[in-house]
Amino acid sequence: MLAGLLLTFLVGILWTFVGVFYKMMAQWKLSVFNISLVTGPATLLLTLLFYSKTGALLSGAIEPPDWLYVMYVIAAGVVNMGGSLILQRSMLYGKSSVTWAVGQSALIIPFVAITLLFSEPWSAFKVSGALTILVGMALLSCRDDEKSKVLPRARYGLTLALLAFAVLGIAQSMTSGASYLTYKDPGRIRPVLLIIGSFFATAAGKFLLKDRGFRLERKAWLLIGFILIQGAIATCVQFIAMDRLAACRMNAVFYPFAVGTCIGGYAVCSVVFFKEKMTKFICAGTLFILTGIVLFCAAAVF
After folding, report:
1. pLDDT above 80 (res 37)
2. What are the CA-CA distances from residue 292 to residues 105, 257, 263 (Å)?
3. Which distant-in-sequence residues (6+ apart) come within 8 Å of 283 by Cβ?
């Protein structure tokens, strides 16, 4: 149980860098599609290389997964990348702290879905933890300076963030649900299938939004290097953490814990790296999120 919580915390720290990368793409006006079309296949190759060296792929599995399982996990990857692309695009139009908090608050959807569909036990600590984290996210979305410059099409950015909230919530529910399917995945084939689904979503998004051409600047290659390292580690560790928590019937904790850590981490990065003003709402929101994480830890102990 403790190992599952520690791994979940690590995933949350790694996901913090996703927000940082998205913010930098928006600031530098880089094509998220072109970057993703490079990082997707490269991450897949790195993951397969890791599995080949460790012999982990399908090791311990009774039999290979059927096509229904394969298509389910690939679909989860498609939906997840779709939500991520929508969330990154929202940062072009709205305040990044607001859009990031709204989009990432999708964690409440898998929390409810896993608890209801797979009969994970409710507890006062888990419910209080989820609500406390959501309050923290709401505080991070507040603006205490009414005279601050309004970003162009801020309402459109918020609309995209709300759409990302729904799409990411569905994707997270599907990903968490994979731990409860009949087929067990000791060989960690899920990360491979998720990466494949993410690539399909990226290619479709580039085509549908008519993102023409394929040009990568020096700054883009710099981001790609960091994204590859972050993505390869986070994708593999994610499912190990989920399985450890599912074994203790605590899988509903994964997304609230990981995303809560991610939101708190991004709040710190926004001040340290992007020199954003540390307001009373940011301080209060971060405190609420940390309190929510403590409540989830309490739920695992009691």
Report:
1. yes
2. 13, 8, 12
3. none
